[in-house]
Write a sequence for this structure.
């Protein structure tokens, strides 16, 4: 019933096109890695270029978000899709040129990456407000988390199949997906309820820097967990002499997370956002503890299956809190800043866990996931205790059905809210 309500609000066509529109993000890094490794015959160089692309995504995302808040989602979404297609064409051309050209083109691909995930979450927020159905926003965010997870299952699987045909094929198909889905999605849906909002008579509204920094760091931690788990399943697959098993194991991680994300739609409204954040940070830590222990006592596939269910609920709480602490006119900027933490954390998690895996194998990589999850829990507890003393979050509860949304307000970084 809850998800049928989303269909009525957004329209049936929104969902399949929105899913395919986010696939280029899920295929981008691996497509670049395969293309440049095949061209240069160097995993080290391909990894360097892919890392440069990830860092560029983290830098470019907030810039795209700020432009979308200023000029509107439709115009910026279309421009980003066109620019990203051109950047992919440049990368394909540079694959026959110097290594410096390849790194520059890979960086350009990252800087112009269409920010479908963050923009569509802001789309949901404004869509729900315009339809007076704000009580459905947690359901929409649950769906989006599940869609993200499934895109990171389908995307790498698609790249793997295409790479078996030709190493150029993943990059070409990524370009095609941008033209066939990301661009039409921006044209058909981004303009409906995501047009630029007026900042009102008080001037440009401010972002709450301190709580936004907490959310950004929390997403960095989540990215580090992803990077460590990716490293662990890759090492495990090499140990059992089945390299293809790494993709299947990581897909298992994504599927479990997606299922948990779908289930979050049925959480009771009295379960406040702050309480969800602390609860799911605790669950994430316990999940990584189970992963670390069960991988040694039982098997890594079983451990991954158990731990996967603790991922999406934690991420959904971050998206929901970020949506609430940002004024409407700066919501896209805030959401893209949050999402920028993901690729940065993933790159750091892969680097650190890769070094530990060299000497300690799978357990070394999983130890990184456990340590950063403990950091996520400590960060959540600190934010909760600070909130009790200083009230740094905008809202405590998921809004009840038919509750009128708050108007955007001006506030300084430390001014008490609500």
């Amino acid at each position: 019933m809850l998800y049928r309500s989303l269909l009525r609000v957004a329209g049936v066509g929104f969902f399949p096109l929105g899913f395919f529109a986010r696939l280029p993000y899920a295929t981008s890094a691996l497509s670049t890695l395969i293309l440049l490794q095949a061209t240069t015959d160097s995993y080290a160089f391909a990894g360097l270029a892919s890392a440069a692309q990830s860092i560029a995504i983290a830098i470019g995302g907030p810039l795209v978000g700020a432009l979308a808040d200023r000029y509107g989602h439709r115009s910026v979404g279309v421009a980003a899709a066109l620019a990203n297609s051109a950047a992919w064409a440049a990368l394909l051309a540079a694959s026959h040129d110097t290594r410096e050209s390849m790194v520059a083109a890979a960086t350009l691909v990252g800087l112009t990456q269409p920010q479908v995930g963050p923009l569509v979450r802001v789309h949901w927020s404004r869509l729900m407000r315009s339809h007076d159905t704000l009580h459905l926003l947690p359901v929409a965010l649950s769906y989006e988390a599940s869609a993200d997870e499934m895109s990171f299952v389908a995307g790498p699987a698609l790249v793997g199949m295409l790479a078996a045909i030709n190493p150029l094929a993943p990059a070409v198909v990524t370009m095609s997906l941008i033209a066939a889905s990301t661009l039409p999605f921006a044209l058909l849906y981004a303009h409906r309820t995501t047009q630029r909002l007026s900042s009102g008579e008080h001037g440009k509204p401010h972002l709450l820097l301190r709580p936004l920094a907490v959310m950004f760091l929390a997403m960095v931690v989540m990215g580090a967990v992803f990077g460590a788990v990716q490293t662990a399943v890759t090492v495990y697959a090499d140990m059992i002499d089945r390299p293809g098993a790494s993709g299947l194991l990581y897909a298992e991680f994504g599927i479990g997370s997606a299922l948990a994300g779908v289930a979050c739609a049925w959480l009771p409204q009295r379960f406040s956002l702050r309480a969800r954040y602390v609860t799911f940070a605790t669950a994430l830590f316990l999940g990584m503890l189970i992963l670390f222990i069960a991988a040694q006592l039982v098997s890594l596939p079983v451990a991954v299956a158990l731990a996967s269910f603790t991922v999406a609920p934690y991420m959904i709480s971050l998206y929901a809190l970020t949506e609430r602490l940002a004024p409407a006119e700066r919501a896209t900027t805030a959401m893209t800043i949050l999402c920028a933490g993901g690729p940065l954390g993933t790159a750091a998690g892969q680097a650190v866990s890769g070094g530990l895996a060299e000497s300690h194998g799978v357990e070394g990589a999983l130890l990184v996931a456990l340590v950063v999850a403990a950091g996520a829990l400590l960060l959540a507890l600190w934010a909760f205790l600070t909130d009790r003393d200083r009230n740094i979050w905008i809202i405590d509860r998921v809004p009840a059905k038919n509750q009128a949304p708050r108007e955007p307000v001006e506030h300084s970084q430390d001014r008490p809210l609500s």
